[in-house]
Design a protein that fits this description.
This protein is mostly beta strands. About 0% of the residues lie in helices and about 55% in strands. The chain has no helices and eleven strands. Strands 2, 4, 5, 6, 9, 10 and 11 form a seven-stranded mixed beta sheet that branches. A hairpin with a 6-residue loop joins β9 and β10 (about 105).
Length: about 120
């Protein structure tokens, strides 16, 4: 079992930055890859980024490429999502998840609101 807890969401103006964190517990953190997803009101949940167990490889959705950076601190059992040049369309609840491709484990999410 893996437990995930997100933090770092909030309200920011367009063009600003936020850094999300996701703390993991349970199984050894290096056992699994991690991902970030988001869900905006009235829309389906969508993939944002993922990162392999060592942090050496990451993949991004086209909508965030060049603005968001996923990373992980294995010593701290934490995965991060640095979000720069935020846009109003980035407003959503952001979730971290473990073990692609099925993503068997999910956090409860953190709200990100970008004002125009």
């Amino acid at each position: 079992q893996v437990q995930l807890v997100e933090s770092g969401g909030g309200l920011v103006q367009a063009g600003g930055s936020l850094r999300l964190s996701c703390a993991a517990s349970g199984r050894p953190f290096t056992d699994y890859a991690m991902g970030w997803f988001r869900q905006a009101p009235g829309k389906e949940r969508e993939f944002v980024a993922n990162i392999n167990w060592s942090g050496s490889s990451a993949y991004y959705a086209d909508s965030v490429k060049g603005r968001f950076t996923i990373s992980r601190g294995n010593a701290k059992n934490t995965v991060y999502l640095q979000m720069n040049r935020l846009k109003p369309e980035d407003t959503a609840v952001y979730y971290c998840a473990a073990e692609p491709p099925a993503y068997d484990y999910w956090g409860k999410g953190t709200q990100v609101t970008v004002s125009s």
